[in-house]
Amino acid sequence: MTGNGEGHCVPESSKPSFADLFTPKLVTVLREGYGSAAFRADLLAGLTVAIVALPLSLAIAVACGVSPERGLYAAIIGGFIVSALGGSRFQIGGPAGAFIVLIAATVLRHGLDGLLLAVLLSGVILIAAGLLRFGTYVKYIPFPVTVGFTAGIGLIILASQIRPALGLVVDGPEPAGLLEKLPLLWQALPSVNTPALAIAAGTAGLILAQRRWLPKWPGMLIAIVLASLAVFVLRLPVETVVSVFGELPRGLPMPRLPDLSQDRVMAVLPDAFAFALLGAIESLLSASVADGMTGRRHRSNCELVAQGGANIASALFGGLPVTGTIARTATNVRAGARGPVAGLAHAAFLLVFLLLAGPVLAYIPLAALAGVLVVIGWTMIEHRAIAILARTSAGDFAVFAVTLGLTVFRDLAEAIVAGFALGAILFIRRMSETTSVTGDPPLAATDQADRLAPYSPDEAGDSGTVVYRVTGTLFFGAAASVGAVLDRIAERRTTLILDLSDVPLIDSTGAHMLAGLAERSQRRGTGLVLRGTTPAMRSVLAGYGIGEPAVRFEAADGQSGS
């Protein structure tokens, strides 16, 4: 049995249709019946999420080095499309802190127009990935890799907020690389602005205190409002949004295509793939979090298509990359959302805030936004998960450490690829250790592949015949060691009965190893019997020329079989 995307089971023989995989959850919810009570609940949840998303969207845009309204464009346009077309009932789309590093680097290399082109191309890539059903495979990224790159991004966010939080005066643009950034900030330390430091520390402290003692209150918005009032009333000499970026626009801009010339597309394509990869991982992780909180099941490939459409639309309106956001999605669930209408309402409320409160938002101090991002960066470092990895598995902790190091000092895409590769190698090694050979008579210690124990055969009285059992998957990671042991056994006996009843799978490398064993046994004039093979195994073995009369097949009970 397998899932159909809603948590129900369907027979494996009936593959899900295109409609099953790509129907938006908004359509599903409306089909189920959507009344006024659900609409009121979704409106309230949407307002709650919008209050949380407002300061976050501004802060993320400022941290990326672009004007703050671009964060709101992404939250409004992208958030609306994610909820309208997505495969999750509760997903909230918008700009995410995880993208800050990639966006800042892209703007530095290609400018704002290059960023918008990369965002648009990432949307095309995400749509293609969803239609090709790649969303099914994102879940195979190892947990230590996700912990590693999110912690690395958290550290980079913290480092990026040192200058605005301290109000430092730096000559020239601030370097993106951590190793280049820290010496420059150290030299600028004498220029620390005490009011800016107080605003940043007070904002971060108030948010953390609210989370502990008043978790249902919109702590980020309260902290931003109080910080702005303090700067206005006390006339504090700190940078504000308007002093650095100018007035915020009152509304959305007209959509515009970025430069689509071939040279420009090829230049930003690596950044587009990085946006798409991180967006896919982040959005499906967020949807999985919502599933865990609600007991529902999201449609991963439908979600990727929606994320792609959201990024294309965000780029056309000048917005940042869009993805599913874990914190806002969790807030949506806790606020009592019933379905995607809450996400649509969240986008609508943000648009109202931009239309009516744009001039007021322009006077938010940058130090207060830095305080918000300090909390985000600190939260992204999953301290409990890291401690568990360090205690329970040296191999998994090594995967985490490599991913973290490459994220901080090299590149996020490199970090994910390297972490995944290292995690795969670690998995192969562990799987190979579960494959063993047991038999009677017992092998000498030097012949043992791993853990060997006696196995009592029916033919124990025949000194020329031995029975050995292979336990575990006979795949490329274990084939060499198992093959070496079986070769040494076959050299000394007239007949080797190899029991494969406890082998769930034989891959091409395992089949090639058995083909070599059969060929050598035939040359020596010794017999080889394969016991307990399934039809699927025999089909694989036949492809490598393993069959009678060189090899005899037996059923699991020792009777002759075809």
Estimated structural class: alpha/beta
Largest sheet: 5 strands, mixed
The chain-level mean pLDDT equals 86
Report low-confidence residues grouped into runs of 5 or more.
1-13, 443-462
End-to-end separation: 29 Å
Q: Compute the number of helices.
A: 22
* Rg over C-alpha atoms, rounded to the nearest angstrom: 30 Å
Proportion of residues in helical segments: 55-70%
β content, as a range? 5-15%
Can you offer a commentary on this structure?
By secondary structure, the chain is of the alpha/beta class. The protein folds into two domains: 24-424, no CATH class; 434-554, STAS domain (Transcription Regulator spoIIAA). Helices cover 62% and strands 7% of the residues. It has helices spanning 18-22, 25-32, 36-63, 69-85, 100-131, 143-160, 162-166, 178-187, 194-213, 219-234, 241-245, 262-294, 300-316, 326-334, 341-361, 366-380, 383-392, 394-409, 412-433, 476-490, 508-524, 535-543; strands at residues 2-3, 9-10, 93-94, 323-324, 436-440, 465-471, 495-502, 527-531, 551-554. The strands form three sheets. The chain has a five-stranded mixed sheet. Helix 4 (69-85) runs antiparallel to helix 13 and helix 17 packs across helix 18 (394-409). The chain is elongated, with a radius of gyration of 30 Å. The chain starts with a strand and ends in an 8-residue tail after the last strand.
